[in-house]
Design brief:
This protein is mostly helical. The protein has two helices and two strands, in the order H-E-E-H. The chain is elongated, with a radius of gyration of 50 Å. The N and C termini lie far apart (119 Å). Pfam families: DUF948.
Length: 147
């Protein structure tokens, strides 16, 4: 055997080993592609019903939102009606009630004034550094000193 023949045999053996490794790799790749195809088919079979359920849930939610919107508009209308009624009642009964209360207060004051024959008290005044300050201003000053 010559050197060329040995080199040819070595190349043929390495070529055979390379082809067998490639054949094993292609077989595993084909097996992986089959598994992937099966997985995609299973996911598709399960996803279609889930999408149908999701679509039904969205439709149901839309219906509920429309109902809530109708309820909110009804509540707004009731609120405006109650506000109008409150304003009407206040304007109808509020003025006369205030007048009756004021009249009652005046009568009570007049009756209590006749029973007491004492003269009315003079308002309290406070002297601050040589000048007289009315009672309301004195209260403001003492509040400021407390703080």
């Amino acid at each position: 055997m010559s050197g060329g023949e040995v080199a040819g045999i070595l190349v043929a053996v390495f070529w055979a080993i390379l082809v067998s490794f490639l054949a094993v790799a292609l077989a595993r790749l084909a097996q992986t592609l089959r598994a992937t195809t099966k997985l995609v088919a299973d996911v598709t079979d399960q996803a279609v019903p889930l999408l149908a359920d999701a679509s039904a849930a969205v439709r149901s939610a839309q219906t509920q939102i429309e109902r809530v919107d109708a309820i909110a508009s009804d509540v707004q209308e009731v609120t405006s009606n109650a506000s109008a009624l409150s304003t009407t009642v206040a304007s109808t009964f509020g003025g006369p009630l205030v007048k009756v209360a004021a009249f009652g207060y005046g009568v009570r004051r007049a009756v209590s004034g006749r029973k007491e024959d004492t003269p009315p008290k003079a308002p309290r005044r406070t002297v601050i550094v040589g000048r007289t300050v009315p009672g309301t201003r004195r209260e403001k000053r003492t509040r400021g000193k407390r703080d």
